[in-house]
Amino acid sequence: MRSHILGRIELDQDRLKQDLDYLATVPTVEEEYNEFSNGFWKNIPLYNATGGSEDRLYRDLDGAAAQPTGHAAHVPYLNEIITTVYNVDRLQMARTRNLKNAIVIPHRDFVELDREVDLYFRTFMVLEDSPLAFHSDDDTVIHMRPGEIWFLDAAAVHSAVNFSDFSRQSLCVDLAFDGDFDEKEAFADATVYAPGGTPDIPHRKPFTAEHRERILSLANVIERENFRDVLFLLAKLHFTYDVHPADTYDWLIGISKRAGDDKMVEKAEQIKGFAIGARELGERFSLTTW
Amino acid sequence: MRSHILGRIELDQDRLKQDLDYLATVPTVEEEYNEFSNGFWKNIPLYNATGGSEDRLYRDLDGAAAQPTGHAAHVPYLNEIITTVYNVDRLQMARTRNLKNAIVIPHRDFVELDREVDLYFRTFMVLEDSPLAFHSDDDTVIHMRPGEIWFLDAAAVHSAVNFSDFSRQSLCVDLAFDGDFDEKEAFADATVYAPGGTPDIPHRKPFTAEHRERILSLANVIERENFRDVLFLLAKLHFTYDVHPADTYDWLIGISKRAGDDKMVEKAEQIKGFAIGARELGERFSLTTW
């Protein structure tokens, strides 16, 4: 994987708690990208293109400054972190993200945007320890620890899950550059940049041909009405078995073929293209319309 | 089934649309009973025990009057329906409920409350036609049509689903009585009470022993991490196959036994008891803590 630890900050638990308490009171809304998620996924924009507290769509700012939303003033500690730790000149979007009993299925980001994907620089910091919450990036699964600032390679096939009800609030700060850059330029506070930390990489069970065969036996039960459920079930497997997240889609295609439903095969191939191939800005996808 | 059509009103589409537009702007929050649902389930209280706009917990009023919430004034047409069609003296709670790409798993209501279940009288009216949205009640699946006022036998094993993204906004008016009553007492407007309407009962495919065996083959793929997903997948089957909703739980128990995981068997038996057996007021249940 290309994702890696950029540095680490010591979180002030008392100040953090006040911000977390505010975030918990913000109602959940339907997400811009809710094709990708299942369960409780709550994104709260703190800085974005418009300053709108409900504007959750990531888009290129083209040199304009990111605007604080109405939420930013209610999370003074996180606001301080954003504006003192990170290089706000490069800031595109800052938001808190929480997952509970939920998965964001394997996908690639930025494919619908204009820049070379390598000019987008997504950082991610977990604010609370949630032992059953994981990220994946290509061949690796990560358990992020609070205070670790990660470069998240959102242009790779990646996914996130929280198998539990335990809150996993986090701060996602998106930066973008116009040309070649050094990743230390992501930070205003140069003392924070200390790459090379050893990540917590959970052990995954071996994935065998026999297990693959068991998975393909889902052809026995897949139907159009549960197609989406099967996808989300498959998407979780790579977090506990040593297999690539993109295999999710190949299993779904294989299961659909065994089930002998051409429409299902077509939709499985479409969702693969949409999630990890190319898609247009604002393009939506239905897993349930046939 | 004991659920049946109580009557029908002609909905004023222009006035309704304004109310629906308001309801669409109300953010979704975590639901009191979110163990039961998956996907988009949005309940907005219009009348309840406290008048609190965020108070979604159904409880006995013990003779006190239900209070309008802050939302009631924003839906003047629905408010007029509630206060002129129904017997507000018996009103316990009135709320709008919407499901999209979501299921509420088979369960029984009122089991945690004090009265004889037959003294609770839940009415339900769909406000929009959503062709892939269904209710179930014991042995029957129903496609409700807009304007039909249903007695919903919430004390029976029942479930609801919307297989599509199409909005299925509805008005759920809960009444309660202190002793024997005639169901026409549910209405202030006696002209609305016109039982005996023929419901739209969709055809379901036969459920065979061979299909049951295929379902039990989910033992090949069930794991603690996808236990909840398997439950929700199973819960959908009775909407398209002619089988009782409670079988959902017996399949889950059977699959868990075949998988040979005693903890899973225990949890499957617990969720069965919680959903369709007895539970305490405010009792919660985790499908993901092991």
Structural class of chain A: alpha+beta
Helix content of chain A: 25-40%
Biggest β-sheet of chain A: count, sense, barrel? 10 strands, antiparallel
- N-end to C-end Cα span of chain A: 36 Å
Give the tags.
homodimer; 290 residues; alpha+beta; Jelly Rolls; Proline Oxidase, Chain: A,  Domain 2; 2 domains; ten-stranded antiparallel β-sheet; globular; Pro_3_hydrox_C_sf (chains A, B); Aspartyl/asparaginyl beta-hydroxylase domain-containing protein (chains A, B); Pro_3_hydrox_C (chains A, B); IPNS-like_sf (chains A, B)
Briefly summarize what is shown:
Two copies of one chain form a homodimer. Chain A is α+β, with helices and mostly antiparallel strands and 290 residues long.
Characterization of the model:
2 copies of one chain form a homodimer. Chain A is an alpha+beta fold and 290 residues long. The first copy, chain A, folds into 2 domains: 4-186, B-lactam Antibiotic, Isopenicillin N Synthase, Chain (Jelly Rolls), CATH 2.60.120.330; 209-276, L-proline 3-hydroxylase, C-terminal domain (Proline Oxidase, Chain: A,  Domain 2, Orthogonal Bundle). Chain A is built from 6 helices and 10 strands. In chain A, strands 1, 2, 3, 4, 5, 6, 7, 8, 9 and 10 form a 10-stranded antiparallel sheet that branches. In chain A, helix 4 crosses helix 5 and helix 5 (247-259) runs antiparallel to helix 6. The first copy, chain A, is globular, with a radius of gyration of 19 Å. In chain A, 41% of the residues are buried. Chain A binds chain B through residues 27-30, 38-40, 101, 132, 163-165, 214-215, 217-218, 220-221, 223, 225-226, 228-230, 232-233, 236, 239-240, 286-289, and chain B through 27-30, 38-40, 101, 132, 163-165, 214-215, 217-218, 220-221, 223, 225-226, 228-230, 232-233, 236, 239-240, 286-289. Chains A, B: Residues 187-283 form the L-proline 3-hydroxylase C-terminal domain. Chains A, B: Residues 17-175 form the Aspartyl/asparaginy/proline hydroxylase domain. Chains A, B: This is Aspartyl/asparaginyl beta-hydroxylase domain-containing protein.
